[in-house]
Write a structure and sequence with these properties.
Elements (H helix, E strand, L loop, with lengths): L20 E6 L6 H10 L3 E5 L5 H18 L4 E5 L15 E2 L5 E5 L9 E3 L3 H6 L5 E4 L4 E8 L3 E8 L2 E2 L5 E2 L12 H13 L3 E4 L5 H11 L4 E6 L2 H4 L2 H7 L2 E5 H7 L5 H15 L3 E4 L14 H13 L3 E4 L1 H4 L4 H16 L2 H9 L9 H16 L4 E4 L4 H8 L6 E5 L2 H4 L8 E5 L6 H15 L7 E6 L9 E6 L6
Parallel strand pairs: 1-2, 1-16, 2-3, 3-12, 5-6, 12-13, 13-14, 14-15, 15-16, 17-18, 17-20, 18-19
Antiparallel strand pairs: 4-10, 5-9, 7-8, 7-11, 8-9, 20-21
Length: 487
């Protein structure tokens, strides 16, 4: 096992030396308390429970460990339940894998008979209901492409555009069609009920095709967890603005997105999704295959390191590890390297210039948004050590995170359960605090906290924002010089 990279997080383990967050997926390689402790020390901020794998009791055990480690470290840990979503697969072959050749005809149908080199079952009538001649089907993560020449309610005749060996139960993608499918299967609904009862902070919704998918999920989740839309279907791009508006956050899920779209389109879409999510003030994660080679190797390729760096330069709130930490041989090293790459990028002289250049006008600014933007500008001009937000709902903190400040955002909150989700947002450290009716008492507590964390010393400057008397708003901005408490 790799030693934790605690030196990367400074003298205080609560404080990271970068603002971009790291999401780590738990699995067989990282399900023990010893490894989870190391992952937190190495730089993991948010943990993903992948409901495509494992059983409920395994997820419960990992969740309980995360809360134990949270109590040990005093650093809040956000937990995300990632729902599987519909899985479209072909059926089986009578005599094992078949070899398809380019140009041959191949039939897909609803028959339960085992397949052969001329046909195979596709037990999804909803696919046939949506198919039209001219549609392409992708099998086995795009390794096989079929062109639909004719179709009916129970079958489709296709021609093999690109062929290879095809084996049992390979996945099917339909990139050009909105399928009449809910994003929530019966399994997902069962998993969702379990995850909400467990107390997860985020629910990631797979297979999002249209805004209605978010409406359906929100009706089941309510305010018990934040809702994250995984952008992995090309159809979602057509309604991206509406989807972002309905979600609390988004994920650029490049795996399936890269199967259903041309590879050259994915990088530009990644930038667009990150930009639009930031403009809306919603946390955005870049995910999938970021350090893929570290599943089996102790170090990433240079291309992978560059890929992570690009996501950080783009201004993503977080970058995510999947199989690298869930099933890989070097889970702690993967987190430590991702942490190191993010640090190196954020300390590059060009980084701040790029982040500032990416800032778009955030629509007709409200007074809350104007105050938050001013807080970030003042912090930069005065060299403030931190921006402090007092928040009950998280809205004030998210406004600050949207500005991508170059200093920690200390989110002081009386309700950790409701605001732990903010640990996914850029630069945010959630701090449980006692509610106080006097603003000056809040300022004094924030100064004491910053000093205890080693963020600020006597004479340093901090910027404080709050929504006094108006939950959900930001209506106070104060510049504070760190000194003795004021009565």
């Amino acid at each position: 096992m790799n030693a934790p990279a605690s030196s990367r997080t400074g003298s205080n383990p609560k404080i990271r030396q970068r603002q971009t967050k790291v999401v780590a997926t738990l699995g067989p390689a990282s399900g023990t308390i010893e490894v989870i402790r190391e992952l937190v020390a190495a730089g993991a901020d948010v943990f993903r429970l992948n409901f495509s794998h494992g059983v409920h009791e395994e997820h419960r055990a990992r969740f309980d460990i995360l809360r134990q480690v949270e109590n040990e470290t005093g650093r809040p840990i956000a937990v995300m339940a990632d729902l599987q979503g519909p899985k479209l697969r072909i059926a089986t072959f009578a005599d094992g894998p078949v070899e398809l050749t380019e140009g041959q005809t191949f039939r897909l149908d609803l028959s339960t008979e085992p397949g052969d080199v001329t046909r195979v079952g596709l037990p999804h009538p909803e696919i046939f209901a949506a198919l039209k001649p001219g549609t392409d089907l992708l099998l086995d993560d795009g390794r096989v492409r079929l062109h639909v020449e004719s179709c009916a309610a129970d079958h489709a005749m296709t021609r093999v555009v690109s062929g290879r060996v095809l084996s049992n139960r390979k996945g099917v993608n339909v990139p050009d069609v909105v399928l009449p499918l809910s994003a929530l299967t019966p399994k997902d609904r069962d998993d969702l009920t379990f995850a909400l009862d467990l107390g997860v902070d985020w629910v990631a919704l797979s297979f999002v095709q249209r805004p209605a998918d978010l409406v359906e999920a929100r009706g089941l989740i309510g305010d018990r967890a934040a809702l994250l839309a995984k952008i992995e279907k090309p159809q979602a791009i057509d309604s991206l603005g509406e989807i972002i508006a309905l979600a609390d956050g988004v994920m650029v899920a490049r795996g399936d997105l890269g199967v259903e779209m041309r590879p050259e389109d994915v990088p530009t879409l990644q930038k667009r999704i990150v930009r639009e999510a930031r403009q809306a003030g919603k946390p955005v994660i870049v995910a999938t295959q970021m350090l893929e080679s570290m599943i089996t190797n102790p170090a990433p390729t240079r291309a992978e390191a560059s890929d992570v760096a690009t996501a950080v330069f783009d201004g993503a709130d977080a970058v995510m590890l999947s199989a690298e930490t869930a099933a890989g041989a070097y889970p702690v090293a993967a987190v430590a390297i991702m942490d190191s790459i993010a640090q190196r990028v954020e300390h590059d002289p060009l980084y701040r210039q790029i982040i500032e250049a990416q800032r778009l006008p955030f629509g007709p600014e409200t007074s809350s948004e104007a105050i938050t933007h001013a807080a970030k500008e003042i912090a930069m001009v005065l060299g403030a050590k931190a921006i402090v937000t007092f928040t009950a709902t998280g809205s004030t903190t998210l406004r600050v995170a949207r500005e991508r400040p170059g200093v920690p955002v200390l989110s002081m909150t009386p309700d950790l359960v409701k605001t732990r989700k903010l640990m996914l947002a850029y630069g945010v450290l959630v701090i449980p605090s006692q509610p106080s009716p006097r603003f000056q008492d809040k300022v004094n507590s924030s100064v004491a906290l910053a000093r205890s964390l080693g963020i600020a010393r006597l004479g340093d400057t901090m910027v404080v924002t709050s929504g006094e008397g108006m939950p959900g708003s930001t209506n106070v901005l104060r510049i504070v010089t760190v000194g003795e408490p004021v009565a």
